[in-house]
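Hey all, sorry for the wall of text incoming. These are the three entities for the joint prediction.
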Amino acid sequence: MSRTGANRRRLVFGTGVIVLAVLLPLYAGEYTVTTFTRIIYFGFLALSVGMLVGQAGMVSLTQTAFFGLSGYVIGLLGTERGMPFPLRDLIAIGAVLITALVFGLIAMRTHQIVFLMITLAFGQICWAFAQQNTSLLHGWAGIRGIRPPTILGVNFGRTSNFYWAALFIIAIGIYTLRRLIHSPFGLALNGIRENPRRMSALGYPVYWIRVASFLVAALYAGVGGILAAYSTGIVTPTTMQLSRTIWVLLTVILGGASYFWGPIVGTIIAVWLDVLISQGTARYNTVIGFIFLMTVLFLPGGVLSIAEFFRDRANNPLLDRIFRLKSGEKNK
Amino acid sequence: MYTKFLILILNGLTQAAIFFVLGSGLTLAFGLMRVMNLSHGAFYLLGGYIGYSVVHATHNWPLALVAGSLSIALLGFLFERTMLVRVRGGDLPETLLTIALSMIIADVSLAIWGGHPLTLNLPAYLNPPIRILGITYPGFRFILMGLSVLIAFSLWLILYRTKLGASVRAGVDDRETASALGVNVDKIYSFVFALSALLVGVAGVLGGSYLQLSPGSDTTILTYSLVIIILGGMGSLLGTVVSSLILGQLLSFGLAYAPQYSYFLIFVPMGVVLAIRPQGLFGRQV
Amino acid sequence: MRSLIKKLSVSLAASLVILTNVQAADDQLKVGFISAFTGVFSSFGQQQKEGAVLALEEANYTVAGKKVDVVYEDDQLDNEQAVTKAKKLVVQDKIDILTGLVSGDEGLSVGDYMKDKNIPVIPMYSASEDMTMRAFYPMIVRATWTGAQSMDVFGYWLAKVKGWKKIYAIGQDYSYPYNQGGGFKRGFFRGGGTEVTTVWHPVGTTSDFSSIIASIPTDQSYNAVLYNGSGGDAVNFVKQYVELGMLKKIPLIGQSNTFEKPDVESMPEDVVGSLSPHHTADDLATPAWTKFKNAYQKRWGHDPSAASEFAYSSMRLILRAIEARKGDVSDKAALVTAMTHVDMSDDPRGPVSLDPQFHSAIENVYIREVAKDDKGQLYNKGLWTVKNVGQFGPYDPQLYLKQPSDSGSYPPDQRSALPPDMLQAGSEYQYVPFGQ
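and here's what came out:
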């Protein structure tokens, strides 16, 4: 198999996927389109968590707070005070970045399990505040009636239009993240994951690189939150609750935390599991719990590691090409 | 005014008692095994439910306490032996396993015991109204405080006065060295994890008796447990005592003076401590 | 071929959709049922389902020769999930009617999404009055209740008949207790009460209420403490209220759900005599209630509650309306009109009719007290009946709608701060001894 042939094949498949994704509203039912929109906004959240876990080796349980925060800003400014697009969206992003900066400056002084705990604490504080503040955030009820804008006569309230917009945004997001990971910044981040002391000795500003990566991750979560608020029309404290945080983490693990596409693949599987299982059985959580149990026990590298398994086993050049999905080093 | 204060302080102590039972096992398991057991809340709920079924069938509350706690200890032991042991050493996989287990326990409990709130009926001899310093206070709450002190004392005895405890402490301090010195770390791990489960089973039966059990109790309890051990310092028994006392009073006074923000309030000291001293009040640098 | 996996997933997902997306056949009707089957309110969700299933089984899942297919979706009492599930039911299952809905906020959220879908929405236990008032649209038919409906009757009675002046109210901080508390305050102030001191606490996360209870001033002549909450919180609160000896100092009263079955069975016996209002009473002796109660016990092995009765009644309303339309559900507006004309005079909880303008229920309110039956079980015993109470109670609808929605801070705690015209009523309640 020649290299050019493989490249051509890759090009054909890549183009095929893009065409399939873009044309989705034309051949699939409205519910499928809605579900893929859901995959896109949760995909942003998963990319956020996955980047921190996979590239930087930091397990953060705070990303859903940024996801919820941007939604709340949209609801508060847009729906309740009539602020127009895109001002409210920019302010939402700004709010997420400022919060992430303040929090990152504190959290990045810690490592590993303490980092996990401090991010858990921060996420819980945000959730508890949203849950209990009734004067501004309406407590448990949240803010409802959020609608996507109409831009240049295009009504993004329509399922298909909104899907295309979301698809376009996540395409930019994925492309940018990929570039970022292969940039000197991304390589430095990998280096810090493997050995922070050495990176520090080599003169890298380890602390600031970690803070910066946290800001990038928060940005992705924030964008996902805006899309989610527009798509569901409502933002509530449950957006930020612990079970959601855990769900996203499990999703990333399910796909494969150390692979670039892991978070996306995990989200696709998890969202569809959600859809299929919830109508098949009342014991939905038992099934999901069992699946995750099995994944952690028998497939710790996630679904994408199955591909690697075949590649290693057969040492087949074709499979080698097809399944070269990994972007970073495997996170052992 | 005076009586109100007295009641608030007693309430805070009651809360602290249950907080300590919740936190002590979790913090020990963490200190030794570096396992963040996120199924702690689900263990609590299940222990309480099992206790409920026993009380319902036999009207024997002490038996319920024994049954509830022992069955959770057994569950914890089996879980550690069959699953946790397979992913030992990986922070993340261990944590994720406990999450998955908690989802299953909570859902199965819902299927068995249903969604409406249940409480364990206390026999009258365990809950006499006690008149003290001009107020009437439920007797069971004093029993709760006494039990908690007793548990703290027993844990101290086990840890500092037995050979087993010495091994546990050696393991907490330095796993590799302890192992090299011939301590059977595997055995110690199982023991501590089962002990931790036993304690949370006790907490479940106690909590189910003076409060109620229903779906959702598990996440609330898990959150409380995490706050307690993070504030106190993970792995520190003394830290758990201190943070239980602080949080108990904070919750009690918070409910009296700012009920709307009472739940939010308990996160504040944790946030402050984490920002200044990430390892918690009495925790060692990790 | 980086995206091969993604592509595979896409096509797999797409094929799964095709597999699951079974179109409703012509001889089939689809009813979507959203409720909380897991999470904090799963008890209410379960009771709703049991009530609805009973009605469906009595009809043998058939109406006007068509098969009724009910799609149940669990929203875990998460408003965002509720909207997502509603979307799924509408877009994928192509439901003809949406029902279920257990909490106030859940109802309002789903209501907001369903606004432009042209599908009838039949809320069962969700009681926020705005759904059939300020946020009403013609596709909503709520043949059950609003939060304020029973509480206005109750508050007025306590002030006017019992002569109470001051109440200390402790409630769960969300929309349904706001509405119940709102109704209570309006009725209580109109009847001559002067003050309802209100304290809110977060839902589901407060386990130990003893500090809130210890803060109740015992020396300021409060006539009663109203616990404005339900579920696990209510069981905790009542238990601790009794244990701290407060019941001997100030009587305890409840909102409609506080002492409902089955929760009341987990409460201490001391609460016997505690008052609360609802649209059902456990000892109703009418043939319709007895028949329903027996059938329910036979099917599910325990007693019905208001939540299960409301679900039974709503499901019967749906079935009867479809029957009246001879199985034709294509014209949704006509279907809704048929619903508002269904004869519900034989409803288990007493005669029910629908307000033609806002599609809300006009029905009996019962004032009840907790009592103990001969098996030692606690239940709610009827004391007084007020017939034909609508969602606006005795007020002029125009005046009522001009007031702000009930919230944590409205209506005010003092009688003097309430708009004076709200203290006048167009009609007065007739309190009839229960059972007459």
